[in-house]
Design goal:
mainly alpha, 5 helices, single chain, 96 residues
């Protein structure tokens, strides 16, 4: 079975040792709209997030990674879906 985008973020969260309450606070502080239980469900692969919500969650994980002196390993939606890494507008479309 293929790993989904939320599960990839979960793998990075665990790798850097970030607990769920701290992640949710960071995510919410960046403008994330999901409740803590919804975020946990997304990280388990049980529900989907919009591109914007995924990217806010990835940013929260990457912020913690940088604080630890690491790179930013959590993939944004364009990379999580196997995209080329082009920067989009947060709604799934890319500038031309």
């Amino acid at each position: 079975m293929a790993i989904n985008a939320g599960e990839r973020l979960e793998a990075e969260r665990r790798r850097i040792g970030l607990d769920l309450p701290a992640l949710w606070l960071s995510y919410f502080g960046l403008g994330g709209a999901a409740k803590p239980d919804e975020m946990r469900a997304y990280l388990r692969g049980a529900i989907t997030f919009s591109t914007l919500e995924h990217n806010v969650l990835a940013q929260a994980i990457n912020d913690h990674s940088i604080d630890l002196g690491l790179d930013h390993p959590a993939p944004y939606a364009d990379r999580a879906a196997g995209g080329s890494g082009s920067r989009g507008d947060g709604n799934g479309s890319t500038a031309s």
